[in-house]
Amino acid sequence: MYRLVHRMQHETESNRNPSLQRCLVAYVQAGTMDLSLDQLAKSVGISKRMLIHYFGSRESLEEQAMTLLEDRLRAQFAPQNFPSGASLESVLHALWDQSTNPSSKGVLLLIMDLSRRAWNGSARAKAFYEKQQHLWEELLLQYLPDPIAVRDILQSFQGAVLRYLITGEPEPGRRMMSRLYTKPKKAQKSRTKARATR
């Protein structure tokens, strides 16, 4: 009996993981998590009943998909993925190129959808947003050890991404990356000068 239960649990787990990955792909392709279980089942290629069997509920499935997305973004934007001797400017341009690559549009839209949920009071979506902010801060602090300047850059970067999603034009954001790079250097010089005159 124990072996049968263990085997069934193992089969469920081995089927759940690929299904979760396919669900995340469906969310990314739609650019939103506002898909019904029927829509997901059709996209994933399994029955709605099996989705419920694997994940319990739509909310549980969304939770697990968010966790998987967090893991993938953490791996993609880990500091060790960027050269240690790289300049802040080259890192910002690399991030911009990754963000505006056509293959990233669904992920950006999905992140915006989760941001909308956070604005509307979803604690889980807010936690997702805060983890992403921390992830990006952690990355940029490797190249600019000034938390305030890093937060300012992130605010500007996010605004540029929103504009890109609305207009489809990456060039204005690319130009802004160069301006963002020069501002922290000026701010650091003025702070250093202020400390020296004390």
Give a quick set of tags describing it.
198 residues, mainly alpha, Arc Repressor Mutant, subunit A, 2 domains, 79% helix, elongated
Short description:
This protein is mainly α.
What's the arrangement of secondary structure elements?
Blueprint: H1 2-30, H2 37-44, H3 48-55, H4 58-76, H5 88-100, H6 105-119, H7 123-140, H8 147-167, H9 171-196
Helix pairs in contact: 1-2, 1-4, 1-6, 2-3, 4-7, 5-9, 6-7, 7-8, 8-9
Description of the molecule:
The chain has 2 domains: 1-76, Homeodomain-like (Arc Repressor Mutant, subunit A); 79-198, no CATH class. The chain is built from 9 helices and no strands. It has helices at 2-30, 37-44, 48-55, 58-76, 88-100, 105-119, 123-140, 147-167, 171-196. With 198 residues, the chain is mostly helical. Residues 1-12 have low confidence and may be disordered. Helix 2 (37-44) packs across helix 3 (48-55), helix 4 packs parallel to helix 7 and helix 6 (105-119) crosses helix 7.
